[in-house]
Write a structure and sequence with these properties.
The chain is mainly alpha-helical. The protein is built from 15 helices and no strands.
């Protein structure tokens, strides 16, 4: 076994260069990556509209316009719910103070190991921290909404251009390969497109199912803003491994502070635990997980790396990007070890044994 330090240097330098490009170019790359995945999803829709006699430009506008209207409608509904909750912020703060007073009195009375807690000091600090926070919530909601709208507009423009020049881009990319391997290269591009399309289509279906289940459970308990909390938790499920837990934590805290009975937060915990059990063991593996074929180590690594480099957008994007990287690596002999490292399992290709003449005669008689 030999080690080539020159090759090792080039590999390390390439990795550092890619990380630098991802970090410093995130303002351009994040909407471009989202737009590419949107284009992967909408490409079959545009093709179907073209087969019905619609022109390509009109088909792209119709597909993108439908998605944009749905996203804007959901965003406006969520913003209205947040502003409505901010209007009841003073009542929420009063109940929070009352809950803290009760909890501190219980600790001072029942727990003798620790010294008594000064409830008045804690409540004064809490009031100073949360003073005028309702206006901050409203302003932050408006700022986030406007930023998201500009981001969506940029992503829509990118998606339109990618879909419009899809054939041209495919032909241009195919020229990176020789004529002998062009068919294999085009097959790789189709497979990359299919992985991205199946991932995001599966995630949208998963969000819809989880949102309906969460909302139904919260409505049965009688929790206010059930639609908002239910679909917020479903959308946070896009973040692998931790999204569902964080999404269930928000309505649990709301129920704990808002309602007098402790059965409400316990009920919320029970509902989200059951839904998370269904999502982790049945829904996600069947709808999304089967299309990724990435082992848990690299899935968690991509989640952490995406969060460090691109924030929440990276936690959403890096998992399908790693899956597409695996597809690309599997088509090149030098990179097949990388694909095997990222994938779930290495399947051994066993040589097919030739049947002897006697076995062939027996099979012919049986047939």
């Amino acid at each position: 076994m030999n080690i080539s330090f020159s090759k090792m240097f080039y590999v390390v330098a390439s990795i550092i260069g890619i990380i630098a490009i991802l970090y410093f170019g995130k303002v351009i790359l994040v909407p471009l990556c989202f737009a590419t995945l949107f284009a992967f999803i909408l490409y079959p829709v545009v093709k179907w509209l073209q087969s019905k006699g619609l022109k390509k430009v009109l088909g792209i506008i119709l597909a993108l316009g439908s998605v944009f209207i749905v996203v804007i409608g959901i965003l406006v509904l969520f913003s209205a719910q947040i502003i409505d909750m901010a209007g009841q912020y003073s009542k929420f703060l009063d109940k929070l103070n009352s809950t803290l007073e009760t909890s501190i009195a219980f600790l001072n009375d029942k727990v003798q190991i620790i010294p008594d807690i000064e409830s008045q000091t804690i409540l004064e600090k809490l009031t100073s921290v949360f003073s005028d926070s309702s206006f901050l919530i409203i302003s932050d909601t408006v700022n986030v909404t406007s930023s998201f709208l500009s981001f969506m507009v940029l992503s829509v423009i990118y998606s339109f251009l990618i879909l419009f020049y899809s054939e041209h881009l495919t032909e241009a990319l195919s020229r990176f390969s020789s004529n002998k391997h062009k068919r294999s290269f085009l097959s790789m591009l189709r497979e990359v497109q299919k992985v991205g399309q199946q991932y995001f289509t599966g995630m949208l279906l998963l969000i819809l199912i989880l949102g309906v289940l969460n909302t139904a459970g919260l409505l049965i308990l009688g929790i206010d803003y059930a639609f908002f909390f239910g679909f917020l938790a479903a959308i946070m499920a896009i973040i692998p491994y931790v999204g569902t837990t964080l999404g269930g934590l928000i309505p649990t805290l709301y129920a704990f502070v808002t309602y007098d009975s402790y059965w409400y937060p316990v009920g919320v915990i029970a509902i989200f635990w059951f839904i998370q059990f269904l999502e982790g063991n049945f829904l996600n593996p069947k709808i999304v997980g089967g299309n990724m074929q990435i082992n848990a180590l690299f899935a968690i690594f991509s989640l952490i790396a995406g969060g460090v480099l691109w924030g929440v957008a990276g936690m959403i994007l890096f998992l399908p990007m790693v899956a597409m990287l695996k597809v690309i690596c599997s088509h090149y002999e030098e990179l097949k070890p990388v694909a095997a490292l990222i994938g779930e399992r290495i399947t051994e290709v066993r040589p097919i044994k030739e049947k002897n003449p006697i076995q062939k005669v027996i099979e012919k008689i049986k047939n």
